[in-house]
Amino acid sequence: MRAAKRHILLLVDNVSSHALGDMVLTNIKVQKLPANTTTYLQPLDAGVIASFMARFRSLQIDHGIERFEADANVNGQSAYKIDQLQAMQWSSLLWSSTEAKTVAHCWQKTGLATPLRGNDEPYEDGEDEGVEEGDADGEIVDLMLKVASISL
Fold first, then answer.
1. Nearest to 33 by CA among 124, 152, 120
2. What is the distance between the alpha carbons of residues 80 and 22, in angstroms, rounded to a whole number?
3. Is the whole model's pTM more than 0.85, yes or no?
4. Is residue 34 classed exposed, middle or buried when 0-12, 13-18 and 19+ CB atoms within 10 A define those classes?
5. CB 48 within 8 A of CB 29
6. Rounded Cα distance, 92 and 88, in Å
7. What is the pLDDT of residues 122-143, one digit of tens each?
8. Most exposed residue of 32, 64, 65, 112, measured as fewest CB within 10 angstroms of its CB?
9. What are phi and psi of 54, to 5 degrees?
């Protein structure tokens, strides 16, 4: 991250497994969300997971129907069973087909982020080369202050 001059703000809830201990991170700031705000502020909970699960379930139903039609000995329940490898492959397929604007929209719904550069288009690789390091740090600090000031 340091060599690429990239900065990351990692928002986490207050679960004990998110404690850093003595770990030192460069170019990564970890900010814990205020207590009892997880359901309001976690962008994945704000839409991406629901969409992902609906599409996963659709794949599973299609798979079950195909298995049921192909093998008369398959009963209703076992037709839908998949192994871990299949679940991982489907998850990879679904995540890679999730558009950046979907994720960005979920961040915007939380109120923690606004469209970058006044539009909904994500940055392309290398496009942020003109962003000064201080500017990125300032954006991270602004977002951290915004998160810290939230009280529900």
1. 152
2. 45
3. no
4. middle
5. no
6. 6
7. 444 444 433 344 454 555 556 5
8. 65
9. -65, -40
Q: Where are the alpha helices (DSSP H) in the chain?
A: 38-41, 49-70, 84-96, 100-110, 133-148
Q: Give the Cα separation of 120 and 99 in Å (integer).
A: 11
Cβ distance 27 to 2 under 8 Å? yes
Residue owning tokens 């606004």:
114
pLDDT digits (tens, 9 = 90+) for 58-86: 999 999 888 888 876 777 677 888 999 99
Token pair of 34, please? 């205020």
pLDDT top residue among 126 and 149: 149
* Percent helix / strand / coil, the chain, rounded to 5: 55, 5, 40
95 SS3 class: helix
Q: Are 150 and 39 a contacting pair, CB within 8 Å?
A: no
- Rounded-to-integer distance, Cα 52 and Cα 100, Å: 13
- The residue type at 27: N
